Amino acid sequence: MPTNKATADASLLLDNQLCFALYSASLAMTKFYKPLLDELGLTYPQWLVMLVLWEQDGQMVSQLGERLSLDSGTLTPLLKRLEAAGLVARVRDVQDERRVHITLTAEGRKLKAKAAKVPNCIREAAECSMTELVQLKRQLHDLRGRLAAAAA
């Protein structure tokens, strides 16, 4: 009986929680990103939007939301701020005005060159080889997929 109680107690220790390890790592990551992104004039969610647009410009708001797992209530104000900063333009679809395309402005495209240093800064701070980072990223993607499937 004591073994079961000890096991149950250990399973409830904060440091034994995968969710806390992921949460605290995420906090550390965004804290490290902050000064790098401040130099670019971006918040972390704005950074994610810009990454997606640098990958493929002209996406619809719904595509961005799907790719970033953000709803339109979160994404729309974020896009408005990026537009006010002159980095993106919101363009209504001529065939269906409910659809809005997000396109990079010249300033938004120009920012990509400045942003190119950020991933290397992260890699250096993590003190991981490229192989280790690729493996970790793959493991996290796999974990996310399994958890999403279990929740569905």
UniProtKB/TrEMBL annotation:
Keywords associated with the record: Cytoplasm, DNA-binding, Transcription, Transcription regulation
CC annotations in GO: cytoplasm
SUPFAM superfamilies with a match to the protein in the record: Winged helix' DNA-binding domain (SSF46785)
Entry-linked SMART domains: HTH_MARR
PROSITE patterns linked to this entry: HTH_MARR_2 (PS50995)
GO biological process, one term: response to stress
Record-level Gene Ontology MF annotations: DNA binding; DNA-binding transcription factor activity
Localisation per UniProt entry: Cytoplasm
Domain annotation HTH marR-type: ranges: 15-149
Main location: cytoplasm
Disulfide bond in keyword set: no
Xref: InterPro entries: HTH_MarR-typ, MarR/SlyA-like, Transc_reg_Sar_Rot_HTH, WH-like_DNA-bd_sf, WH_DNA-bd_sf
Positions in coiled-coil regions: none
Keyword set includes Transcription regulation: yes
PANTHER family per the UniProt record, alphabetical: ORGANIC HYDROPEROXIDE RESISTANCE TRANSCRIPTIONAL REGULATOR, TRANSCRIPTIONAL REGULATOR, MARR FAMILY
Name assigned to this protein: MarR family transcriptional regulator
Organism of provenance: Ramlibacter albus
Taxonomic classification: Bacteria, Pseudomonadati, Pseudomonadota, Betaproteobacteria, Burkholderiales
